[in-house]
Amino acid sequence: MDWLERAVSLRQWSRDGVRAPHKPLLLLYALGRFQADGEGELRYSAVEDDLKQLLVEYGPARPTTPAYPFHHLTSDEVWEVRTDTGTGSPGPRIGVLRSSGATGRLAPGLRTALSREPSLLARIARVLLDLNFPPSLHPDLCEAVGLELELAETDPAAARERRQRDRCMRELVLTAYEYQCAFCGYDGMIDSTPVALEAAHVRWWAYDGPDDVDNGLCLCSLHHKLFDKGVLGIGEGHRILVSQHFVGRSHAARDHVTALSGRPLLGPQPGVRPVAAAHRTWHTNQVFKGSPRAAA
User: Which parts of the sequence belong to the ScoMcrA-like DNA sulfur-binding domain (predicted)?
Assistant: First the structure.
């Protein structure tokens, strides 16, 4: 059985359509770390909070723990666990994983295969995404685990030489804008987890945009997409621009897009740097389409 087949064949608890994406989430997270540093060694106590958040956002509604996949993924022969005293997982109990210094990483054979054939990482990741999550979640999930699939597919040799994204930016930006869309004020959550709120780069990361709060906006999914498409922008005085090229005749289009023209951004909170003029100017010149509408 090859490594791609092993990813397809992960043993997951299943009954009556109940979701259990614990192992795929951990494996995706491990692949992201491997892509970043070539080792991907994960000490349980250091990554527990990250894995918990992944399970909250992308896992089932029922209570769950990252200790389960951290221990049980070893049975699929794609993952190994060591402790401070030697090889082998100490079991799925949270306290024991913490106290024993349990550390997990991709199995040695898989690490070797990924080093020899870097594009394998993207193929495994896409299989895990396709089998366990709808396409609408793939970009957000890749960002959450630090995976850059396009880079692995087009120029895998450069993956580790390219600058890495700051994993903390999303949380810093959402906190700065107090978990509400800077354009419309949307602030939806499920339990305590934000839903459809995203950290948008003003100057795109691909064009040397830094992972800094003053290059970020907290936006809902709709306005993030429209911002990146050039329908929306930021003008002088941090007021919202709406392109004259945008056409929307419905009440929804008018209420959610054209009515934003001229409104001030919501946030960031006092003491946090607003969007830097240089980044705002770059977006206006390189992304925003045409001329702005008159203020609503």
Answer: 4-148
